[in-house]
Design goal:
11 helices, 26% helix, five-stranded parallel sheet, alpha/beta, 29% strand
Length: 409
């Protein structure tokens, strides 16, 4: 076969296949996934899917979609190599597939820890449906869970487990939660929320060993502190799955290196999604992002390029995370802001943090304030910056009036 071959059937790969058909691409599309599950939404894995015994995966598209759009979908088969000269890929099951254009959308894998005990059966990662199912099956036996890592996935799972009556301890090697993902102001608010719902947080701490009794997890050693544990969740970040590209002679550097059109060194090979290092126009430097929005927007842009209308990727990044009853939403990317403006609700609870740099609004974090989030995306994307006094109101009506005044809408 020929046409376009897409390696990876996550958010990026499935969106690309759909967008190619929407753009009028009529030749073959073949979508390959090493995951045996039908393509699914990943954000629910750490929350609703794992928390509900009979919850089904949420499909990215219905099964009929692929047949109706003549998209060949192969599940549970890894790609072992790329032959750029022959324009073929070799699959682990022995098949060879020819391509006109190849798109790598392989995503990330969970970063592992190497402390003693990390290989025990009650130690989990949480990146795939298989991971989530394994942890969900063990939920009824969980009483004390230690989460290693204070990032989004770990904190989402910690809040969910706590709501089920599980005692949860979170260990973070840094001085605060959420690393460079949020401002310290928002990290402190998340810390307070988790503490209120009973999660115990241990900052500036490292795991020395996961202890076992009779072959099962019995505790986690932190220096001179021993935490009771019957299960452990490891959420210490993700590694881009760029090995296939690297072995094929393509440039990699914390991901597959692409240009503004998402093209690799090879003019017939492109890459999109969490596995990609691309020139981020808002930061004006090469970066890699892990988000559904980035994956799907890159796919839409690439579909236009592959169908004859070259489109550089310039979409504004935005992110979200549900941590217990907190809906954290982030618009834009904060890069050394020189002013942070906090807003609070009538009860004094943090509602939003606006990030400004030389008077320009570059990012906005909100907690349970969807209206501000949606408006801030418009403001940042269009380069419209209300005054600090207007932003400090945290009032959507006031900020919207400022937007209309400044943009002439």
């Amino acid at each position: 076969m020929s046409g376009i071959v897409i390696i990876g059937a996550g958010h990026a790969g499935v969106q690309l296949a759909a967008s190619l058909r929407d753009a009028g691409y009529a030749s073959d599309i073949h979508l390959l996934s090493g995951d045996p599950d039908f393509p699914y939404h990943k954000p629910p894995l750490s929350k609703s899917f794992m928390a509900t015994e009979d919850a089904a995966l949420q499909p990215l598209r219905g099964e009929a979609f692929f047949a109706q759009n003549n998209i060949g979908l192969t599940l549970g088969v890894d790609v072992s190599s790329i032959d750029r000269a022959a324009k073929t890929i070799e699959c682990a099951d022995g098949r060879t597939i020819t391509y006109d254009k190849l798109v790598i959308a392989t995503g990330t894998s969970a970063r592992k820890i190497t402390v003693p005990g990390s290989g025990l059966p009650q130690v989990y990662a949480l990146r795939t449906a298989t991971d989530a199912r394994a942890m969900r099956e063990a939920l009824p036996t969980m009483k004390n869970v230690v989460v290693i890592g204070g990032g989004f996935i770990g904190l989402e799972a910690a809040a969910m487990l706590s709501a089920r009556g599980v005692q949860v301890d979170v260990i973070e090697v840094a001085a605060r939660l959420l690393g460079r993902a949020t401002s310290e102001i928002v990290a402190d608010a998340v810390f307070h929320h988790l503490t209120q719902i009973g999660v115990r947080l241990h900052l500036n701490k490292s795991v020395e060993a996961i202890l076992a009794r009779d072959g099962s997890v019995s505790g986690v050693q932190l220096g001179d502190t021993l935490l009771d544990a019957d299960h452990v969740l490891v959420g210490v970040g993700a590694i881009p799955m760029d090995g296939l590209a690297r072995e094929g002679g393509l440039s990699t550097n914390n991901g597959i290196v692409v240009d503004e059109y998402l093209a690799t060194d090879d003019p017939d090979i492109y890459a999109i999604g969490d596995c990609v290092s691309f020139p981020q126009v808002h930061l004006q430097r090469q970066t890699r992002l892990e988000s559904v929005q980035n994956a799907t927007d890159q796919a839409r842009a690439l579909a236009q390029t592959l169908t004859g209308i070259p489109v550089p990727y310039t979409a504004l990044p935005w992110f979200w995370s549900d941590i217990g009853t907190l809906k954290l939403q982030i618009a834009g990317l904060s890069d050394l802001p020189d002013q942070l403006i906090e807003t609070h609700d009538a009860d004094g609870v943090l509602k939003s943090v606006y990030h400004l740099k030389q008077g320009k609004l570059i990012a906005c974090e909100t907690l349970n304030s969807a209206g501000e989030h949606m408006l801030s995306r418009k403001l940042i994307a269009e380069g419209v910056a209300p005054s600090p006094t207007e932003l400090a109101t945290g009032n959507v009506k006031v900020i919207k009036e400022a937007y209309q005044r400044l943009s002439g809408v």
